[in-house]
Amino acid sequence: MKGRASALYFFHLASQAFAWPFLPLLLKRRIHLLRVGILLGTCRLAQVTASPALTYLGSEPRPRTIVFLICWLAWQLSTAALAYVAAAPAKEEDHNATFGVLFVVALVRAIAEAPLSPFVDTVVAKATRKHFAQARLRGSVGWGLAAPLGGLAFQYVGFHANVLAFAALGTVAAGLFFHLDRKLNELDADRPLAFLDDDDGEAEAEEGHHAANEGQSRGGQANDDDDDWE
């Protein structure tokens, strides 16, 4: 399970690296840099605001699956729409309308993206426990490998290639997320301690053994006290 959790981080962050760093470069082809800054700053503010609310809605297993799926689909579709609008030809007098469309699509994308990483963090932390840092490191490797490839794709092919890679890697990450989330929910329901590390499991078992011995000792002492009274 730790390997699948690490793979989830790897593909999730790699998918982000193919799209997110290149959005300012994509937007400045169509709108003024000042408007790019306003758009991205507003999107970040919306993301920070939406993240607690959406993650709260997904605090339970079944709602979490639904919220993740809806947000993931909106995230993918809005990224593709953003690339399409930015690449579509427009007249000089249509720049205000283009900015308005880009603003709405980017805002939807930011809100949809807001709960995805917190949900991924939750599942990976639960699956890896004290090995979370190792899984996070593999995610950073995924970002580090994907970002240069994304730059080459953006420069020599176009942002549509980034969107395709973003969608492919994101689909793998989503599949791993649903698989791990379902497995962890099953373990919580049937065997709450089954996903613990060996050391943790042995410690829990040893603690239970000591508690049982202590209970037996107290029971034997109580019986002796009863015999003395008789």
Characterization of this structure:
By secondary structure, the chain is mostly helical. 85% of the residues lie in helices and 0% in strands. It contains 9 helices and no strands. Helix 3 (33-57) packs parallel to helix 5, helix 4 (61-87) packs antiparallel against helix 8 (159-190) and helix 7 (132-156) runs antiparallel to helix 8 (159-190). It starts with a helix and ends with a helix.
Assign a percent range to the helix content. over 70%
- Give a quick account of the main beta sheet: strands, pairing sense, barrel closure: none
Strand content: under 5%
Distance between the termini: 58 Å
Return the string of H and E elements. Answer: HHHHHHHHH
Q: Specify the overall morphology.
A: globular
Instruction: Tell me the structural class.
Output: mainly alpha
Q: Mean pLDDT across all residues, rounded?
A: 83
Instruction: Indicate the radius of gyration in whole angstroms.
Output: 25 Å
Summarize the structure.
The protein is mostly helical.
How is the topology of this model organized?
Layout: H1 2-19, H2 23-27, H3 33-57, H4 61-87, H5 95-113, H6 116-128, H7 132-156, H8 159-190, H9 198-229
Helix pairs in contact: 1-6, 1-7, 1-8, 3-5, 4-5, 4-8, 6-8, 7-8
Overview features:
single chain; 230 residues; mainly alpha; 85% helix; disordered C terminus
